[in-house]
Amino acid sequence: MVKFDKLSYPTTGEKIEVVGNKLKFPDKPIIPVLEGDGIGRDIMRATRRVLDAAVDKCYAGKKKINWFDIYAGEAAQAKYGEVLPQDTFKAIKHFIVALKGPLTTPIGGGFRSLNVTLRQVLNLYACVRPVKYFEGVPSPVKEPWKMNVIIFRENTEDVYAGIEWAKGTKEVKKLINFLNKTYKLHIRSDSGIGIKPISVTATNRLIRKAINHAIEHGRKSVTIVHKGNIMKYTEGAFRDWGYKLAAKEFPNQVITETELEKKYNWQQPEGKVVIKDRIADSMLQQILTRTDEYEVIATPNLNGDYLSDACAAQVGGLGMAPGANIGDFVGLFEATHGTAPKYADKDMVNPGSLILSGCMMLEYLKWQEAADMVYKAVGDTIKQKRVTYDLHRLMEGATKLKTSEYASAIIENMG
Ligand code: NAP
């Protein structure tokens, strides 16, 4: 068994295993949990109660989550004297599935984003963000129910790779000189420089995950979103490699949009997923104006960042948007908003994002009944207009609940 410096894992429960090329889920898995900073404490407490209640009600003790507290951010600083200890990486790698609250990232100097570091070190190459409407949530659009997409955002490359140098440094001067001389460019000497790598390796594994999801969940299309008209050898290549992979690895399960038109006269054949692509700026319009034409989206890192939040806004904002960072096997399920420090420990904020990320986690464990029970209870609680302050200020005649009361209302609605 794995050894930790300052952690002891639960004595009951089992480890999720990789057997062959598949995950094997025990009935009582040990799941590491990172509470996070700021409001992480409030929302994690609420989320654990809701998930435990659903599992208990669905499986009557046959299945159970054995939570295992691990540390990052302020809590890790206090326990270990560092914000991201090796114990934390080790625990997530070893136990494979983990739940995480938000972590503070200071702007400018200080340490690099803990979130980005976790994703890169654990090779969690797909940021997965489902965006779906819950009836009754205030939305800025007329037909929010048309939104039901799942975004697969590449998580390790692009301008997020962290390869950049500040204006005036020795490194940037050397780089500018080299580029200007070797390639006869005219980069201004007072520039900072960032590098945008996009590889066929990272593209293929991301697009493969998106297509597999579409096939397994009976979704109609996968849309590759890129800016290939401008950045041909990074974003354009992402699109080309995506089509190539789809044709090579899924020849009997996918067709292109061109085939849909030419061969099938826009009548989508049963059991086939349509692969299409859109340019990122156009996609930001399309998702607003032709929302229900999109189901699964695969995109590089920066486009995915903008698109995920834009989609979330259409269904009522980040308070309700779940997310996960997933690699070949390891899955880190997390709230998509930050630590909102001004609300920390006030038992006030909306735990919806983390609760729904917890539902994604239950689905990953194949505990669909428990996930469905939570989805339904969250939906019913919102329909009853029993909500936290953020939704309360936007809804007529709603009852304002604390974070803990909202969790209790969801549990009550599980029947
Ligand atoms: P934020 O923490 O997401 O909060 C911004 C605003 O969003 C809040 O003031 C609040 O709006 C609303 N909000 C966020 N979560 C909410 C919830 N659960 N319920 C209701 N309202 C919620 O963004 P930030 O202030 O820019 O970032 C704070 C820290 O979090 C930074 O250190 C940042 O780096 C970090 N961060 C971490 C993650 C992560 O761990 N994945 C993600 C993003 C940011 P109102 O004030 O209008 O009510």
Keywords:
single chain, 415 residues, alpha/beta, eleven-stranded mixed sheet, two-stranded antiparallel ribbon, 14 helices, 17 strands, 40% helix, binds NADP nicotinamide-adenine-dinucleotide phosphate
> What compounds sit in this structure?
NADP nicotinamide-adenine-dinucleotide phosphate
Tell me the strand percentage band.
15-25%
- Beta strands, count: 17
Radius of gyration: 22 Å
Shape: globular
Q: Tell me the number of helical segments per DSSP (H or I, 4 or more residues long).
A: 14
Low-confidence stretches: none
The strands making up the biggest β-sheet line up spatially as 4-3-5-15-14-6-7-13-10-12-11
Major sheet details: 11 strands, mixed
User: Can you give the mean pLDDT?
Assistant: 95
Which percent range fits the helix content? 40-55%
Structural class estimated from helices and strands? alpha/beta
Instruction: Note the gap between the termini.
Output: 40 Å
